[in-house]
Amino acid sequence: MYALPFLDLPPLNGASGTVRLPGSKSISNRVLLLAGLAAGTTAVHDLLDSDDTQVMLQALATLGCAQRWEGTGRQRVLHLTGLGGQLAVHEADLFLGNAGTAMRPLAAALAVLAATQGGNFMLHGVPRMHERPIGDLVDALRPLGCTVQDLGTPGYPPLRLHGQAGGTLATETPIRVRGDVSSQFLTALLLALPLVSAARDIVIEVEGELISQPYISITLNLLARFGIAVQQQGWQRFVIPQGSAYRTPGSVHVEGDASSASYFVALGAIAAKGGAPLRIEGVGSDSIQGDIRFVDAAVAMGAQVKSGPGWLEVHRGRWPLAGLQLDCKHIPDAAMTLAVMALYADSPTHLSGIASWRVKETDRIAAMATELRKLGAEVVEGPDFIEVQPLPAAQWRPAAIHTYDDHRMAMCLSLAALNPLAADNTAGPGVPLRILDPRCVGKTFPDYFEAFFHVTTAHPAQVPVICIDGPTASGKGTLAAAVADALGYHLLDSGALYRATGLASQWDGVAPDDEAGLARLAGLLDLRFGHGPEGSRAWLRGREVSSELRTEAAGLLASRISGLAGVRAALQDLQLAFRRAPGLVADGRDMGTVIFPTAPLKVYLTASAATRAERRHKQLISKGIPASIVDLRADLEARDARDQNRAVAPLKPAEDAYLLDNSNLSVDESVQQVLSWWQARRPF
Q: What mean pLDDT is reported for the chain?
């Protein structure tokens, strides 16, 4: 609800662990369209769940392709029933977002189907999609006899595709398409023209040099799986045999995304400097994706990489990294990652052959140059190249990175958070980084930042903490959870730790005044937190105790045992361990005074006893629990007195805390006040 349009990354100093990649976007959308055009039902395993695949799935559903899901999580399998090359729907309005892998092949397929079977289809997307060229594909389709109408700027979406049933296409002569702007134009024709190959072989000839050749290899590989054996004559001539027809292979597994692997290969090259490697699962030595060749470039810069079927393991090798001079036509998407790796090198990096960057989700050459300069780097850009100078540790600047609604900009630039390691073998303090519109990663890797933080480390002192302390029933738990959600930070409900200790003591028969026994329980507390549809959840010793921890009895017992010095000491290390990247919001009674005394923002939340009693009364009544406001107020005042006068960590505001009386504030207003204070503390 409160999610903000940015994510702050603290300075990071290491990486290790395992990342499981999502399915390849390039493979996923090709497989979806092939399955949609084929006869029969295809079981698609490991399909990428992202913005781009969602718009393709919606388009196919609109066109009449039945879809059924089985399983959950990574075991989910899509069963998609295709059209067998015959239109089931002859008129549709299709919104395709900013997905070039959906717009271009669907435009070609629907153009030839409408021209021969009759139809009227409109294809459009977000404003940026209407700035991405499609004219070279349209120029190849119109001479065939396809009617393609520009609904906006000629040569760009939106488009209207229409025709009459019984039409024929002029496939007697070679179909010519430019190959030097985007390989997706050739892919679109290769996917569409088998639909009209009944009468003769169909020849496609490429004009100019074909860029992004590895993506054509993916297309040809997948066409073969669906029964289309294209005859390839170099990279200039492709022949679709007469009588080609799509047929389902029964099932298809989508391998992990090699472009997404590049961020973690780079992360390992920069930060996997200890004994443990960074392991990447889902793509490896058997990949059919051209971007797997990014590994060669990373090795040339100094990475140590081992690989096998479906996996990679990366260590830091040479340090600083070596500057690179590379023609990147073979890895156009993954090459963006090299531009950020260049900051950690000892000599300039010159990346050429990247003219296609100009016509992607944004003008990526201009965007990359602009954002790297914000960090302090010297960058030279040209029509088809970018050159980046190394950035010494002392010259890094905090920056708010604009992502241009481009998933790859967000993921590439996240590597700049490793700046404490720049041009040095020891981690310095570093500077924080802000990623604007982090949700744009949903295009290909919705869980990217969760995966990124799972395998990176930061010095605890560099991880920002917001402390929200206050008396019982002041609303600090609700406020802390909302602020954490807005910032994408971890949440520490310290009260739950004391409640769980009290619950464990009841299970084990430990008396509430047995300080030594309670301290032993607290030191071994097996407590895990998570989130579900109904809010935060907790498991104690593997048993869910969410409801039990919220009872009045649990609160009373927690208040009693929290005054015991041994219990507080036993829980302190556990509380400190919650301080993990990207940040922490901690609520309790001594977060700002004892546990995190150096936190950059401390808030002391309160409300009058009458207001707190009224809130608690409403909460209990809503749950069907009878309660008296008078008794509740008396209980709250007694707890306040006990908490304020205890010998260990008495309840009081930290000297530098902001005081926030929320007696007359809504939750939203309280959240906005805390976020306003937090924004004033940030360096962006």
A: 93
